[in-house]
Design a protein that fits this description.
CATH class of chain B: Alpha Beta
Number of strands of chain A: 11
Number of domains of chain B: 1
Strand order of the largest sheet of chain B: 6-7-8-3-9-10
CATH topology of chain B: Rossmann fold
Number of helices of chain B: 8
Oligomer: heterodimer
Strand content of chain A: 5-15%
Largest sheet of chain A: 9 strands, mixed
Structural class of chain B: alpha/beta
Helix content of chain B: 25-40%
Radius of gyration of chain B: 18 Å
Helix content of chain A: 55-70%
Distance between the termini of chain A: 76 Å
Strand content of chain B: 25-35%
Number of strands of chain B: 10
Shape of chain A: flat
CATH superfamily of chain B: P-loop containing nucleotide triphosphate hydrolases
Chain lengths: 852, 253
């Protein structure tokens, strides 16, 4: 094979070299010639020097004088070497036909190709077309190098193919031997399948638990994706994305636990089968069949359950708010995403639990199931340091308005808590164990915590995270919506208009006719680059957020008109410092006016929006953005309603500049903020007629952003806010219920998984003379610890984050009181439900144990 | 006579995970280089104090556990050269196991438990059931065939385990304290069954026991101390005398 390759390669390369060498580029007697022809011409002449010089001088650039001896010699060497290359190439072709001489020709050709290089360095300055000369030599050199490298590679290929052949033979022999030794003729009898069936059916409870929990995990993912797909066009995108992410994490946790529970229960049976001589592959096959069946059933049931949940939610929302709220559909892409996510979830869970099913040892499998879980000691300091760093970073960022209450930071905080609490709890338990008096006093109640350290911590932490998620993320939002100002109160005016000087006559007419009461304030448009809440990255097209810029005097006047006490501040005359008034209700997240590239100070531009196209280099892009939107320092911030929460803080916030600066910018950018209140409902058609005409005149103003209007109508916005709030409430409650169900399933699984162990323990305790009351107390104390400890942790974390949220949203004392009261009620209800669930599980356990 | 199983410089260590006191993993040698030969037809007892490595030795000899050093030869085959599936075939066809805690599957009936190794060997159902019934009759447990293990007494369970061990007509039976969980009377019945299996059926038996009375039924006793063979005692006298001798040797353990 390699001989054939050698032959083909040699012939091809021989011809390639010949083709290159046939290139005519040396001027000879009025025509172009090849190197060989030129060299033969020199050889044929009587005077080698003059013949060489004649050719060389023809090649020289205009103005080149007669060639000196050294140049002539160099050119002769150059021509001779390249002629030899061609001759060698010619010899090489017939040799190649017999598969020989490849290496020799490769090396010699390469040497004769390198020799002219020494001449080229000098000659290229003299000849008329140095590029042609260099390219010719270069291409020839590459071709000869290819012959050389190719010959080496073919040689190695030869060697490699010999080795591969030997390896294949060894492999074949090994497989043959393996096949012979592992031959296991025949088919399993019907009795085998009967036994396998009996063994499976006796553990149907395990399958039911597996399939139930698996289907719930799957339904969670379907519900998460489904809700996101159906409602993503509503204002619930962030809630739904958070739910989606959390549902994925919880589903994986659920699957890992159910797999551990299932495998632990099946391990004893697998161990017996292996000890009795069942082949490992056969066992793995049946384990895989069992697992795959359970997974498929889980997916099928989860599919039905998930669709049921979605249907329930859709019906609920459609009934409450009309079918138009279901703004999206579950497309093929969504389903593909769902199934990929489910697949990934199961794979992750199987990888995590891999050791348990991949290697069911013949001995020790049963021992492993009851083995104590060591309290980690190795990486405690590192773990505490990492945890503390995470916690500090999370607190530092979350307390800053610029991150816009991003849930990323509570997430980082919880990761930090995981490291921190695990290590601290381990240290606490070890210290407690060392104190003999205390240790023996609580020996029975604490025993489980020592013995099953990892499992206990995992469950407790999971519960703490679940409570935190419910109490902070969802209950906080419910309380915020429930206690927020009434939508009507967010709009002191019926209409808010951003007008030009020319529009003022029309508004004056309306006032004159007695249709409206009018207030007008001088203003300028203020734009900020990018989103207020979402980060903008270089290269993106900027969407301008538009706000209202007013002077200090106007601000004070507006406050006076709105009956609000103005803040005190001192702004610079050059407009570098600003005071910001966020116009939003208390249920809206606190966010900066913009957080361009996560910088502390906002970048605000006075004037109409501008577009910076993407496609520029990041540094150029950032510089041009910063030039167009000068950086301002925030002197003060407040959350107040002066004109109306028309965009709930996304647009139309008020930016106060100093009077001097405003005077300066008003010359070019002057606008009028017109606030209208209807004198009576009857006046509305007439007013709207005028406003529609106004809107048409200002069509260009509206073209920048669909959310920014020429005028805002209270009667349109108030019902929308009310609907959004109601939807927010329903979706949040729905999510909380889903999480609570998961929590109970987890605890039930834990209880069921440990039931046999608990029964043994209580039989033993009864035998050593412990009365039923004391034994029951032991069970209750354990259940109580799973209720109390996670609640202490989650209450502390939730309360802390809640307090930060209150501060960030700049609540008044009354708002704070109402908010805490609302959240407190939810907290109590949630604790009572959890306690009832724990009570039910406790009774279930006591009953089961007593039955034993 | 042929050597059925042989151990050369057999070692088995266990790795204990780090504890609060000792943070590093600890390797504990349980068997420290045992040389041993068991010939066909022998009835060998293994005795020693708790923790001396009796169960570990029988697990390694039975190819349930892998040695960490040395070699086990089964019928002149070096078990190190065998694949896991070949070891499984040997365990199924040529070895019979009887464990202290019976190791029966509660999900299966007694009949199914007995025939399990034969079924796993792809034998025909009819053949399996017939053999199972024959053995049950021999051991007097025919009336229990339709029951489940949890409905049986300890002695009955152990007889079921012996039937299961014999179903594939193995050459070697390994028993790990088969009378450990039984009362004296049941223990005697079980040991008499072993004796019968050895004498009448010609099976080789290696039995771990604590009980000198039970051990006196063996033809040879290997005394273990701290993972090493202390003494290899052959029975050359009557059972009573052998029993006295065992008692004497036990004082040295």
């Amino acid at each position: 094979m390699s001989r054939v390759i050698r032959r083909i390669y040699g012939i091809i390369m021989g011809f390639v070299i010949q083709i290159i060498c046939m290139y005519r580029w040396i001027p000879l007697d009025g025509k172009e010639a090849t190197c060989l022809e030129a060299f033969l011409n020199i050889l044929r002449s009587d005077n080698t020097r003059s013949a060489t010089a004649a050719i060389y001088e023809r090649m020289m650039a205009d103005g080149g004088g007669p060639a000196d001896d050294l140049s002539v010699f160099q050119f002769l060497v150059f021509t001779a070497s390249l002629a030899i290359v061609q001759i060698l190439g010619l010899i090489y072709i017939p040799f190649s036909f017999f598969g020989r001489g490849l290496m020799f020709c490769g090396v010699s050709g390469l040497i004769f190709c390198i020799i002219p290089l020494f001449s080229v360095a000098e000659l290229m300055y003299m000849v008329e077309d140095p590029l042609q000369m260099m390219c010719y030599v270069g291409i020839l050199l590459i071709a000869e190098a290819a012959v050389f490298i190719g010959s080496k590679l073919i040689e190695q290929l030869n060697e490699a193919s010999r080795e591969a052949k030997a390896l294949r033979e060894r492999d074949r022999a090994f497989r043959k031997d393996r096949k012979r030794r592992l031959k296991f003729k025949g088919r399993y009898s019907s009795l085998f399948y009967h036994i396998i069936g009996e063994n499976c059916s006796s553990r149907w409870g395990d399958y039911v638990t597996f399939i139930a929990a698996g289907s719930i995990a799957v339904s969670f993912v379907i519900a998460g994706f489904g809700m996101w797909a159906l409602l993503k066009r509503q204002e619930l995108n962030t809630i739904l994305l958070n739910f989606l992410a959390l549902s994925m994490v919880i589903s994986v946790f659920l699957l890992v636990n159910i797999l551990l529970f299932y495998l632990k229960n099946r391990m004893k049976g697998y161990g017996i089968l292996l000890n009795l001589g069942m082949r490992r592959m056969t066992l793995r096959f049946y384990m895989a069949v069992e697992l795959i069946c359970c997974i498929l059933l889980s997916v099928a049931l989860g599919f039905l359950l998930g669709n049921g949940l979605l249907f329930g939610l859709k019906t609920l929302l459609a009934k409450s708010f009309g079918v138009e709220v279901i703004s999206g559909t579950l497309t093929e892409r969504t389903w593909m995403l769902i199934f990929i996510s489910i697949g990934v979830m199961f794979v992750v869970a199987l990888v995590i639990t891999r050791d348990n099913y991949y290697n069911p040892e013949t001995s020790g499998a049963a021992d492993r199931a009851v083995m104590a879980e060591p309290i980690g000691v190795k990486y405690n300091i590192l773990s505490i340091l990492t945890g503390s760093a995470f916690v500090c970073v999370a607190i530092h960022f979350f307390t800053d308005r610029k991150v816009g209450e991003s849930l990323l930071f509570p997430g980082i905080f919880l990761i930090g808590c995981y490291f921190l609490l695990k290590s601290l709890w381990g240290i606490f338990l070890r210290c407690k164990k060392r104190m003999k008096a205390l240790s023996y006093k609580n020996m029975l109640t604490d025993n489980y915590k020592y013995y099953r350290f990892k499992t206990t911590f995992r469950y407790m932490f999971f519960l703490a995270v679940m409570h935190t998620v419910i109490l902070f993320v969802y209950a906080k939002d419910i309380a915020a919506v429930a206690t927020a100002q009434k939508a009507e109160n967010l709009f002191p005016y019926d209409y808010v208009c951003i007008a030009d000087e020319g529009d003022m006559k029309e508004f004056a007419k309306l006032e004159k006719k007695g249709f409206v009461e009018r207030k007008a304030y001088p203003m300028v448009r203020v734009c900020s680059p990018g989103q207020s809440v979402i980060f903008v990255s270089p290269g993106e097209d900027l969407i301008n957020h538009q706000h209202i810029g007013v002077s200090e005097t106007t601000y004070r006047k507006m406050c006076e008109d709105a009956g609000i006490k103005p803040d005190k501040f001192r702004l610079s005359e050059d407009g570098s410092t600003v005071h910001i008034i966020y116009q939003q209700d208390s249920a809206q997240k606190a966010h900066p006016i913009n957080n361009f590239l996560m910088e502390d100070n906002p970048f605000l531009r006075v004037g109409q929006p501008t577009v910076i196209k993407s496609g520029k280099a990041a540094t150029v892009w950032i510089t041009s953005v910063k030039e167009l939107y000068p950086e301002r320092i925030v002197e003060g911030e407040e959350v107040s309603i002066l004109t109306g929460a028309v965009s709930q803080g996304a647009h139309e916030n008020i930016v106060v500049f100093s009077d001097t600066y405003m005077e300066k910018v008003m010359a070019d950018e002057a606008k009028e903020l017109v606030l209208l209140n209807l004198t009576s409902g009857k006046a509305r058609p007439e007013v709207e007629k005028t406003l529609n005409a106004f809107k048409e005149r200002n069509a260009e103003e509206e073209s920048y952003d669909a959310d920014v209007k020429a005028y805002y109508d209270k009667s349109e916005i108030v019902p929308r806010i009310a609907r959004e709030r109601a939807m927010n409430l329903e979706v949040n409650i729905f999510i909380i219920v889903l999480f609570m169900i998961t929590g109970f399933i987890m605890l039930y699984m834990k209880t069921a998984a440990e039931m046999e162990e608990r029964k043994k323990q209580h039989t033993y305790l009864a035998l050593v003379g412990m009365g039923p009351k004391k034994r029951h107390r032991l069970i209750w104390s354990e259940f109580l610890s799973f209720l109390v400890i996670p609640f202490i942790i989650s209450t502390a974390i939730s309360a802390g984050f809640l307090w930060v949220t209150i501060k960030l949203r700049m609540f008044t004392a009354a708002e704070t009181a109402a908010y805490i009261k609302g959240w407190g009620k939810l907290y109590v209800v949630y604790v009572l439900i959890q306690a009832a669930g724990m009570l039910a599980l406790g009774y279930y356990t006591v009953r089961k144990v007593d039955k034993e | 006579m042929k050597v059925i199983i042989k151990a050369e410089k057999l070692c088995r260590n266990y790795v204990i995970p780090g504890s609060e006191e000792k943070k590093e993993k600890e390797e504990i040698p349980v068997i420290k280089g045992i040389d041993l030969e068991v010939q066909e037809g022998e009835f060998v007892g293994i005795m020693g104090k708790s923790g001396c490595g009796k169960t570990t030795l029988i697990k390694v000899l039975g190819m349930i556990d892998k040695p960490t050093g040395g070699t086990v030869f089964f019928k002149d085959m070096d078990t190190k050269d065998l694949w896991a599936e070949e070891l499984a075939d040997i365990r199924r066809r040529e070895l019979g196991f009887v464990f202290q805690d019976f190791y029966l599957m509660d999900s299966l009936t007694i009949r199914d438990n007995i025939v399990l190794p034969m079924v796993l060997d792809k034998k025909k159902a009819k053949e399996c059931l017939q053999k199972g019934e024959e053995l049950a009759e021999q051991f007097g447990i025919t009336h229990l065939l339709k029951k489940h293990p949890y409905e049986l007494s300890g002695g009955e369970k152990q007889r079921v385990a012996i039937c299961r061990a014999l179903i594939n007509n193995p050459d070697l039976i390994l028993a790990d304290e088969p009378t450990g969980n039984l009362d004296t009377k049941s223990g005697e019945i079980v040991v008499n069954e072993f004796k019968r299996v050895n004498e009448e059926l010609g099976k080789t038996i290696v039995m771990v026991t604590h009980d000198p009375k039970m051990a006196s039924n063996c033809k040879r006793i290997i005394f273990l101390r701290d993972g090493l063979i202390l003494e290899d005692l052959n029975r050359e006298t009557e059972q009573e005398e052998f029993y006295e001798k065992i008692l004497e040797k036990m004082k040295d353990l």
